[in-house]
Write a structure and sequence with these properties.
The chain is mainly alpha-helical. It contains seven helices and five strands, in the order βααβααβααβαβ. It has one domain: Rossmann fold (3-Layer(aba) Sandwich).
């Protein structure tokens, strides 16, 4: 099994709005999409979402692997929140990536790079 990635909500939104560089889009297109449950929630609660976009998002999510909050992830979230004082959604994404040995793809590298053992990839840095 090769390298696996967890895609952050901000990257998914940029991807769906075609705001990412071509290299990043091609890279993401080559992946099996893997999301945290918080990304599913954030996407479906996205304020700018219209009816057609909601259908597109539901289709996108249905072909993605969504990680729910298993107990090991919950314990890791608590640990991350105590150690790094980051927002709960970011802690959920980081804990999901760590618990499942995934590299987090996010443009929010400032918060995530502080978390020990979490590998982070900025889609804007993909060449």
């Amino acid at each position: 099994m090769g390298t696996r990635y967890l895609v952050d909500t901000n990257v998914i939104i940029d991807y769906l709005e075609n705001k990412l560089p071509e290299n990043a889009i091609a890279f993401l297109d080559s992946l099996e999409m893997q999301l945290s449950i918080i990304s599913r929630i954030e996407l479906l609660a996205w304020p700018k979402i219209g009816h057609q976009q909601l259908n597109e998002l539901n289709g996108f999510i249905s072909v993605s692997r969504v990680f729910n909050l298993a107990e090991d992830v919950v314990l890791k979230i608590i640990e991350i929140r105590k150690l790094y004082s980051i927002k709960l959604p970011d802690a959920i994404i980081a804990a999901t990536a760590l618990a499942n040995n995934l590299i987090s793809i996010t443009r929010n590298t400032a918060d995530f790079k502080r978390i020990q053992n979490l590998e982070v990839l900025n889609p804007w840095a993909i060449s």
